[in-house]
Design brief:
27% helix; single chain; Rossmann fold; 5 helices; alpha/beta; two-stranded antiparallel ribbon; 175 residues; five-stranded parallel β-sheet
C-alpha cells in the first residue's frame, strides 16, 4: 500500500513556509491505518519492550495502537500543565519555535526498555527530547518508529545514536 497517497500536504501551516503533512486522511482510512500500525509494530515484534512512549497529540494515535499491537503499556508525554500527577520535564527546539514535554515521574522505572512512536519526524528535536526524558528517568531507548520521515531536514543526524524506522520518507524531490 502506498501510504504517501494517503497523506495530505498543507502548505503554509502552522506558519508560512512550512508544509504540514496531515495524517488525518490516513487514519480516516481503516485499511491504511491498520496497515501502518501493523508495519510499525512489525519492526519491533520479539524485542524486549516494556512500554511505548508517544507525544501529544498525534503520537498518541500511533503510539497507543502500536502498544496494543505489541501487548505493552503506553506512556503519554504531554505539554506542560496537562498531567495531574508529579512530572519531570524536558525543553527542546522545534523547526518553528521551542517547546517542552512532561511525563509522570513514575511512568518509567530504571532499566525499562522504551520504544518511541510518533506520526512524523522532522528535525528530530521532539524525538530527541523524548529520548532525553527516558534516559533522565533511568530508562533505555529501544528505538524510534515513525510513520513519516522528512529526510530533507536530516533528523537521523540528531538521532544517530538510536535505531530509527520510518514507513514513508519525504525528501526534497518527493514533495
Amino acid at each position: 500500500m502506498d501510504l504517501k497517497e494517503k497523506i495530505r500536504n498543507i502548505p503554509d501551516f502552522p506558519k508560512k513556509g512550512i508544509i504540514f503533512f496531515d495524517i488525518t486522511t490516513l487514519v480516516r482510512d481503516g485499511d491504511a491505518f491498520r496497515f501502518a500500525v501493523d508495519e510499525m509494530a512489525k519492526q519491533y515484534q520479539g524485542k524486549k519492550i516494556d512500554a511505548i512512549m508517544g507525544a501529544e497529540s498525534r503520537g498518541f494515535i500511533f503510539g497507543a495502537a502500536v502498544a496494543y499491537k505489541l501487548g505493552v503499556g503506553f506512556i503519554p508525554v504531554r505539554k506542560p500543565g496537562k498531567l495531574p500527577y508529579e512530572t519531570c520535564q524536558v525543553s527542546y527546539d522545534l523547526e518553528y519555535g521551542s517547546s517542552s514535554l512532561e511525563m509522570h515521574v513514575d511512568a518509567i522505572s530504571k532499566g525499562d526498555n522504551i520504544l518511541i512512536v510518533d506520526d512524523l519526524v522532522a528535525t528530530g528535536g521532539t524525538a530527541k527530547a523524548m529520548a532525553q526524558i527516558i534516559e533522565k528517568m533511568g530508562g533505555k531507548v529501544v528505538g524510534f518508529s515513525f510513520l513519516v520521515e522528512l529526510s530533507f531536514l536530516n533528523p537521523r543526524k540528531i538521532l544517530e545514536a538510536y535505531e530509527l524506522h520510518s514507513l514513508v520518507e519525504f525528501d526534497s524531490e518527493s514533495m
